[in-house]
Amino acid sequence: MTCPATGPVVVGVDDSPVSRSAVRLAAREAATHQLPLRVVHVFDWGPDPTSPQAELRDSAEQMLADAMAIAVADEPEIEVTTAIIEGHPIVTLLREAAAATLIVVGDGNLATRSNISVDATAVQIAARAGCGALIAREESPPLGPILVGFDGSASSRSALDFAFDSAQRRGRELSVVRVVEAMKAIGDVEAAPVVTDGVGDELAEALAPWQSRYPSVTVTQRVLAGDPDEILVEESRSAELVAVGARGEQPWRGALGAVSQALLYHSPRPVLIVRHPAEQ
């Protein structure tokens, strides 16, 4: 499945504070990429089938009205539509993602929780959406560079596509980080020293086609040695947005690789999980 380049930006909303942040972020992306915004609230009768339907409907309509007001106040030029859909939230949002260019959801406060369920909505959307999944945080990010982790994989090249385009449209600098991971010690065998010679040149060569296409984007390229998860989470603290490939060099891990999971769970900034078309 390949997500449509002209599909809407879809944002899932509820009555949580992080949902309002998600709406603002989604409206920003819709305006930045000149796409319509579709605001969706999903409710499931399962937990409490005795609740009055009219009461639930009134509450849902108010959520959508509030979300639309936020979106239009922030980005008055975008086209906004809304929908109330009955069903399982994750299943319904994944169905919405199939026709979207981008789907945005709140993180459910993942970064502040010690125990994270793999069934959490943000985790499932990030892992299974057929388009890019942008995970919003409750706290609005400061203005800063767009950060992208690059390892040469097809997934990370797709992340570069988004990152360069987003940096140009936002007028932001782009920070590209390549992390060289050290081999860990095993028993009595010492860890091998990290070798970064030539990696910087390889990174510059890999980025050249994008820099040619986006000459107005100021790019900082860095090669860092250490644990990719820890380094990229730390680097993300000074970023406005983080873009990362879904699986990177670890396609055997399943829907999300170690780095994308670490950023999803621990970065304080919005994280965009990007898939190569072959992964969708």
UniProtKB/TrEMBL annotation:
- SUPFAM superfamilies, A to Z: Adenine nucleotide alpha hydrolases-like (SSF52402)
- One matching Pfam family is Usp
InterPro entries xref list:
Rossmann-like_a/b/a_fold, Universal_stress_UspA, UspA
GO MF entries: ATP binding
The superkingdom listed in its UniProt entry is Bacteria
Describe the location of the UspA domain by residue ranges.
Answer: 8-136, 145-275
- Does the record carry Mitochondrion as a key word? no
Q: Which UniProt keywords apply?
A: ATP-binding, Nucleotide-binding
Per the record, the similarity remark reads: Belongs to the universal stress protein A family.
Q: What is this protein called?
A: Nucleotide-binding universal stress UspA family protein
- Give the source species: Micromonospora polyrhachis
